[in-house]
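lol so apparently i was supposed to do this last week
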Amino acid sequence: MRFSDTGYYIEAYIKCGNCGVLVYDDGVKSDRADLKGVTFCSDWCVDWKAQKLDGVSEPKIKRAM
Ligand SMILES: [Zn+2]
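anyway here it is w/ zinc ion bound
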């Protein structure tokens, strides 16, 4: 979700490219070329999606949260 400069209205609803939750701030971006322009809610989701793209069927990422 992105708020306008004034913060009075919502400019865009942005959902995490992995889990689909609404992203309220700038979110997390991957520097992978194939994930360019995709916003994620957390580093965990970035890693998970990246492993999926690398062919890992069940990515195992330790939770940092
Ligand atoms: Zn997510």
